[in-house]
Design goal:
- With 416 residues, this protein is of the alpha+beta class.
- 30% of the residues lie in helices and 22% in strands.
- The protein contains ten helices and 17 strands.
- The protein has an eight-stranded mixed beta sheet, sandwiched between helices. A four-stranded antiparallel beta sheet has the order 12-13-11-14, with helices on one face. Strands 4-7-17 form a three-stranded antiparallel beta sheet.
- β1 and β2 form a beta hairpin.
- The longest helix has 20 residues.
- The protein is globular, with a radius of gyration of 24 Å.
- 47% of the residues are buried.
- The mean pLDDT is 97.
- Bound molecules: zinc ion.
- Zinc ion (ZN) binds next to α3.
Length: 416
């Protein structure tokens, strides 16, 4: 019988969230903030205390650990479970005071340190699925840090389960905790050889049962506009101001579609993120997002044509269009290894949940890991309202995430 106690995982989680691990997008060091290592070192010590002697933490703040195989089968792949230790820079992570509402009663939850922060079931209906069960919130001044300390806690609790249940057969299990995921650098200093896994799962998702095997594919695009520069006192009918051309290009972008603010679900978009320049020369930087390479290519074509039409209205002005790959939809890789997602679905069902397949309108460490040779979908932990003071999580969801990890390891062993 595979059972993880919600109270045990909650106690663990509440310890981890009290450690400030906010990452910093402005920093150029690795990790971007030294304090992330406070949690990494604690995890390392706890792994050692559990008897997981093959564990280490490095100068970049990564934690690597191996739970040895206990099966007689020799062909079970090494499977990795991964979570990030940092919290988002969007909201303070200093002196987080987690509050366990042990038997949630279905009422509004007023956060005591700032009573204007109220968690309401009519706004967050998922709360009602946790009636009479544990809900953890912050106290009103900070985020909670369920993103992604719930993933960290679920993996650590599953590790403890394995160490105390040698009768549960599994192959080699790899644990990985990363810094700087929230600032897009979670895989920057990862040592894939040290990790030594063939397949992976990040625990960094929302509602119980959710499984994300698809992310955006992402490109950047730069439009360079060259004007015609002449002394302004003698410029009549000659000068072409690149800044005005850039303004006209931005104005020509459609208003009711093709933007982050007008799309959802599986729709892609183009989004100008910065403009720079002088009268002579201007640049507009865009991000381009969709789920397939073909769709990305269509967005580039459309943007290039739209820009060319506008620039043509300014005789003498010239333009150049450049695109650059940022990251790719993990589904392309996962489709080559269908068992990775199929086993996760089976594990979620064995944990007693309904599978909710979802796609992420963004990138994850898993999308980068998938292209680094570690096919890596994303599994739920239960986190809600992330990156905000109203962040919360149900303790039962975290326990179910830990159970899913155990089931997954068993399923990989059974099918090898
Ligand atoms: Zn996360």
């Amino acid at each position: 019988m595979i059972y993880i106690s919600p109270d045990s995982v909650a106690e663990r989680f509440m310890r981890y969230v009290q450690i400030d691990t906010q990452s910093d997008p402005e920093s150029h060091s690795h990790p971007t903030t030294e304090k992330q290592k406070d949690l990494s070192r604690l995890l390392f010590r706890e792994l050692q205390a559990m008897g997981i002697t093959r564990s280490m933490t490095d100068d970049y703040g990564y934690v690597y650990a191996t739970i040895p195989a206990n099966t007689s089968k020799t062909n079970v792949p090494a499977v990795c479970f991964c979570a990030h230790v940092d919290t988002a820079p969007d909201c303070s992570g200093y002196e987080v005071k987690p509050i366990l509402h042990r038997y949630y009663d279905g009422k509004d939850i007023v956060l005591p340190d700032d009573p204007s922060q109220v968690l309401r079931p009519e706004v967050s209906p998922y709360l009602m699925e946790h009636l009479n069960s544990g809900v953890i919130t912050a106290s009103g001044l900070t985020l909670l840090g369920a993103d992604d300390k719930s993933g960290v806690a679920a993996i650590m609790e599953a590790a403890l389960f394995f160490m105390q249940h040698p009768e549960v057969k599994h192959g080699e299990i790899k644990l990985l905790f990363t810094p700087d995921e929230e600032v897009g650098k979670g895989t920057a200093k990862i040592n894939m050889e040290q990790l030594g896994a063939q397949f992976g799962y990040t625990l960094d998702g929302g509602e119980a049962g959710s499984l994300e095997d698809e992310t955006f594919s992402a490109d950047g695009a730069t439009l360079i506009i060259e004007g015609v520069i002449v002394h302004p006192g003698y410029a009549k009918n000659k000068l072409v101001n690149a800044l005005k051309v850039a303004g006209a290009v931005l104005d020509a972008l459609p208003k009711g579609e093709w933007s982050p603010e007008t799309t959802e679900g599986r729709e892609g978009f183009v989004h100008p993120v910065s403009v720079s320049g002088i009268a002579e020369r201007a640049e507009i930087h865009f991000i381009v997002r969709d789920f397939t390479d073909e769709a990305l290519e269509l967005h580039h074509q459309r943007l290039r044509e739209l820009a060319a039409q506008v620039v043509a209205r300014f005789p003498g002005a010239r333009m150049e269009y450049k695109s650059a790959e940022q990251y790719r939809n993990m589904k392309k890789i996962l489709d080559r290894h269908p068992q990775v997602v199929a086993y996760a679905e089976e594990a979620i069902r064995r944990a007693g949940l309904t599978v909710k397949k979802e796609s992420i309108r963004g990138g994850t460490d898993g999308s980068r890991l998938s292209y680094m040779g570690l096919p890596c979908p994303n599994i739920f932990t239960g986190m809600q309202n992330i990156h905000s003071k109203l962040e919360w999580i149900g303790t039962r969801d975290m326990a179910k995430a830990a159970e899913t990890i155990v089931h997954l390891s068993v399923i990989w062993e059974e099918n090898s």
